[in-house]
Structures are given as C-alpha cells and as structure tokens.
Amino acid sequence: MTAIEEAANLLPNLSRAEKAQLLQWVARDLGSAFPGIESTPDVCGGEPCIRRTRIQVWLLEQSRRLGISEADLLSNYPTLRAEDLVNAWAYIQANRQEIEAQIRDNEAA
Fold first, then answer.
1. What is the DSSP string of 43-92?
2. 28 contact partners, CB below 8 Å, separation of at least 6
3. Rounded CA separation 45/16 (Å)
4. Per-residue pLDDT of the chain (109 residues; tens, 9 = 90+)
5. CA–CA gap between residue 50 and residue 76 (Å, rounded)
6. More exposed terminus of the chain, fewer Cβ within 10 Å: N or C?
7. How many CB atoms lie within 10 A of CB 98?
8. What contacts 9, CB < 8 A, 6 or more positions away?
9. Whole-structure pTM value
C-alpha cells in the first residue's frame, strides 16, 4: 500500500480538529504556511515582518504580552490587517524559540 493510499484510509477516521492539524502540516510542508510573513536580509535586520510593512512579528507578540488588544494593534498600525495578525500568531506558534530570542535581543538593546 502506498503512503497516499494509507492516508486516504486514515482520513475518514480523523476528527475535524485532526484534519485541520493535518492541513496545517501540509501547508507548512509546501512552503506557504505563513503567507504575509517575510524575512528580507536588508529589511529590519532580516527579522520576520508583515509583508508590505516593516512591522516585525516579535513586536506584535511583545505588544500582545503587554496587554495591547488586536483592535488597538489594528488601530495603531493602519497598514496592518486582521489577516496579518492571524498569520503572525500562526508564525509565532510555529517559531516560538526564534520569536523569544528576538524579543530578548531587542529588550537588551
């Protein structure tokens, strides 16, 4: 039995949450897991930012930790969209150690 046949047999037995998790894994594996998040060496030191902006992902996470609401973030950064926050939160969840290091580095500066 091929891997795809095995997956087809397992799929009906998965819960909706497990199927959603599987989709996230497939999307990450295909390389487009975090649309709207980009790292460019010459922009903000290469740290991941929201596309079309220079808003660093770590900055959004630090703001959230300090109690700033999503509504306030959207209000304070007019170029930021709700979709950008969703992408940032997903990126943070998948890259927790990287974001933690960036927060520490920027607090020390």
1. SGGG--EETTS--BHHHHHHHHHTT--HHHHHHH-TT--HHHHHHHHHHH
2. 94
3. 39
4. 898 888 889 889 989 888 888 877 776 666 556 789 999 899 999 999 999 999 999 999 999 999 999 999 999 999 999 999 999 999 999 899 999 999 999 998 7
5. 15
6. C
7. 16
8. 1
9. 0.70
Do 28 and 47 belong to one domain?
no
Distance CA 18, CA 59 (A): 31
Residues contacting residue 52 through CB under 8 Å, at least 6 positions apart: 79
Distance CA 2, CA 17 (A): 25
Looking at the fold, whether 5 and 42 belong to one and the same domain comes out as no
Could you tell me the maximum CA-CA distance found in the chain, to the nearest angstrom? 56
Q: Are 38 and 89 found together in one domain? A: yes
Same domain flag for 53 and 84: yes
Residue 15's domain comprises 1-33
